[in-house]
Amino acid sequence: MGGGSMNGNNDEILKRLEKLSSTLIADSMKFENVMNHKLKPVNFQKPLVGQARTVSLYPGDNLYLHLGIYEAKPGEILIVEGKDSTTSAYMGNLMAAAAEKLGIKGIIIDGLIRDKKELENMDIQIYANGFIPKGPRKNGPGAFDIPIQCGGVLVNPYDFVVADEDGIAIIPYKKAEAFIVKAEEKLIYEEKRLKTIMSFNLDQGDDKSTIEPSWLRENIENQ
C-alpha cells in the first residue's frame, strides 16, 4: 500500500512532478505503470499531477465512486477501477461538479461517462474511455482506498499521478524519488539533444553524424 496522505516531502515531490511529463516518467520507469491508450482526457487544460485515492466499482454501478468523492481530500485525484465496462456511464456532470466543489483535482475512470458538453467546461480534469447516455446502478458492491487496476496498471492509494495529453503514468509511492531523478536526468538530456538538433543546418553542409543517435549503428549491427 502507498504511504500516507500529504506531507512536506510529498509536496516537494509534487512540485518536481509538475515540471515533468507522462513521457519522461514513462521512460524513467522503463515504460511500466502507464495506462492504456483507451483512457483519454475529456477537458485537458494542463498536466494533472497529484496523489491517488482509489475506487473499485462493480461493472455498471457507481455507488463507491460517490463515496470516493466525499472521502477524498482537496488536491487528490480519484483513480477508478471501472473494469472497462461498457454497460453504462459511471459519472456525469452532477458528480463531477460536486467533486470539483470539494477540491478534487481529477477523476480517471477506465469506463464510460456522460454529459460530455458540460464536463468540457469544468475545471476538474476527467479521463475516461468514452461516452454513453445510459446511467448506472447505485447498489454496489465496491471498495475505496484499496489496491486496484485501472487502465491495465496497478494503483495503490497515495501513489503519484502524472496525466497529460499523451496519457497517464502512475508512480509507485515508495519508488517515486528514484523514478523522478531518472526523469529529471532524461529532461536535461532531451533539452540538450533538441538544442543540438535545432542548430543543425543541412544547407551549410553540417555532418549528419553530429545529430545521429550514438546508439543507432551499434543497435543495427546487433540485429
TrEMBL record:
Pfam families: RraA-like (PF03737)
Cross-referenced CDD domains: RraA_family (cd16841)
Entry superkingdom: Bacteria
Keyword Transport: no
Keywords assigned by UniProt, alphabetized: Magnesium, Metal-binding
Matching PANTHER family: 4-HYDROXY-4-METHYL-2-OXOGLUTARATE ALDOLASE 3-RELATED
Protein name: Putative 4-hydroxy-4-methyl-2-oxoglutarate aldolase
Biological source species: Staphylococcus pseudoxylosus
